[in-house]
Amino acid sequence: MDHKDLVRQSFDNQPLLPMGNYQFLINPLTEQVPATSAALLRAAADWIIEAGNFTSATKIAGEEDKGAILVAAVSLATDLPFGMARWYPSGLAGQVTVGFAMEYTQGALYLNGIERDDRVVIVDDMISTGGTMIALIHAVQQAGAQIMDIICVGEKPVYGGVQRILDETGFSVKTLVKIDVSGERSRLYV
Fold it and tell me: Rounded to 5 degrees, what angle do the CA atoms 165, 188, 156 make?
């Protein structure tokens, strides 16, 4: 099985858990149910690197909730350092704070490690409504960095997040797998 098929398989026919008006996708890559295999993490990182424009990037950025393992794997494979948006403040000098609202919660992101004139590729696991990604884009911009590319492994198109991100920020998001979450189990769009 090639790396793209392995990633696709990890999102197909997986259980969905209703959370308010949204469907939460249980899967091995983002939820570790079942546990994330090294092969799956490597496959996702390889596909992200193939899809992304890393040639002029100087850093990778992401957020710690579920995307952190992907950011770390891509960092190891590309030898690029990374900055991380956390869900709690450290109070360190230079930390950028932005508010966010997504389908399950709201609060603030606290970005460390991204600096003025960095050329950044943003990597994340899933786009649903786009709220977290919009906040991350704003945080990278507030840090004075240039966004070179944005890559997300999964997308739930029914929630319109990719279009919302484009409308609110002007940035296009590359997604690798589009997932239908309208039933009791996930299905991939072909």
Answer: 25
Whichever domain contains 159, its CATH number is 3.40.50.2020
Which among 26, 151, 165 has a CA at the least distance from the CA of 102? 165
**Spatial contact of 115 and 145, defined as CB atoms under 8 Å apart:** yes
**Domain with 118 in it:** 3-188
- Residue 108, pLDDT > 80, answer yes
* Backbone CA torsion sign across 109, 112, 115, 121: negative
pTM of the model: 0.95
> Three-class SS of residue 188?
strand
What's the DSSP call for residue 37?
A: P
Cβ(150)–Cβ(75) below 8 Å: no
pLDDT, position 44: 98
Count of the separate structural domains present in the chain: 1
Instruction: Using the structure block, give the residue that is written with the tokens 């090294």.
Output: 38
Write the DSSP symbol of residue 81.
-
Contact 145, 118 (CB under 8 A): yes
Rounded distance, CA 2 to CA 159, Å?
A: 29
Whether the pLDDT of residue 103 is over 90: the answer is no
Give the DSSP H or E segment for 123.
Answer: strand 119-127
